[in-house]
Design goal:
Elements (H helix, E strand, L loop, with lengths): L31 H25 L3 E8 L5 H8 L8 E5 L5 H4 L5 H4 L8 E5 L8 H4 L3 H5 L9 H20 L2 E9 L2 H13 L9 H7 L2 H15 L6 E5 L3 H17 L10 H14 L1
Helix pairs in contact: 1-11, 2-11
């Protein structure tokens, strides 16, 4: 069964209602063995595309992962990018901002971590936290010392969305392709995964009381994600809503999307000039 990325892509100006987007779709594999085989094929091609990205040195790729707790961001990054040369890939996880980061604008801490040309950058959570967790817990804005009395009004959030889309368009114009994944998890599946983390001693470290506290804001987060996805999915930096109740299926979808995005750059290995080719032949002769 062929994976069609466009089915998971949020069109520009599309109004997203997450209840209409599935958290589980028909599997793109018939067995665990076939799932593993297909993923390995994707990874092999990803490795080749990454080599061309590095050699071409004119583009960068930024992958952004956002989701509710236990949706599988870490696992997706680990499995999908497992075959990538670590010299050409960097992963950044963004948690609570430091005092230094709070003293700057909300895009500052992530801007410092953007990938160089020829490399792949991965953000496990990102500047989108500023219109998600901050939207749900508005008290966080007090620590950011945002000026003005309208820091909690709709105009304020509209400006934040505008800052993000302007920033992403700027990055695209300068050679960075941005692809954003929202791992769409059902509340029931999250409950099952939380229980599994509690029951498995090797996974206890992944769970805390704070996770349960955030679960109580499920509906508020869904609304925040809906507005975020609707407002910030653009032609140059699209959002993909990936059904995440089936982890293996989600990883196949993500790897296929990343592959298609890299191929759309139409890269090739740099060609050498006639003079360079002659020099190479001369060197070869000396080596023989």
């Amino acid at each position: 069964m062929k994976i069609e990325p466009k089915k998971f892509r949020v069109r520009e100006n599309e109004e997203v209602r997450l209840k209409k987007w599935p958290t589980r779709v028909k599997s793109f594999y018939k067995s665990d063995k076939q799932s593993e085989k297909t993923l390995k094929e994707h990874i092999k091609e990803l490795r080749r595309q990454q080599e061309m990205l590095y050699a071409n040195n004119s583009h960068a790729l930024l992958l952004i992962f956002q989701a509710m707790d236990a949706a599988g961001k870490d696992g997706a990054i680990k499995h999908v990018m497992s075959g990538i040369n670590p010299q050409g890939c960097q992963v950044f996880s963004f948690k609570h901002p430091s005092n230094e980061e709070l003293a700057h604008d909300f895009l500052w801490r992530t801007t410092r971590c953007l990938p160089e040309r020829g490399r792949i950058g991965i953000f496990n959570r990102s500047y989108y936290e500023e219109v998600l967790i901050v939207r749900v817990h508005k008290g966080i804005l007090n620590a950011e010392a945002v000026p003005g009395k309208s820091a909690r009004g709709e105009k304020f959030w509209k400006h934040r969305y505008q800052s993000i889309t302007d920033f992403e368009k700027h990055m695209c114009r300068n050679g960075t392709r941005i692809v954003k994944f929202f791992l769409h998890l059902s509340k029931e599946e999250q409950r099952r995964r939380f229980l599994a983390r509690i029951d498995d001693p090797s996974k206890n470290w992944k769970f805390s009381q704070a996770d349960l506290a955030e679960r109580k804001f499920w509906n508020e987060y869904q609304l925040a994600y809906e507005e975020c996805l609707s407002t910030t999915s653009t032609q140059s930096a699209p959002w993909f809503i990936v059904p995440a109740d089936d982890k293996d299926n989600a990883r196949l979808i993500i790897s296929r999307i990343v592959l298609d995005e890299l191929k759309s750059l139409k890269m090739s290995y740099p060609e050498v000039s006639k003079e360079q080719h002659k020099e190479l032949l001369k060197i070869r002769k000396e080596l023989e």
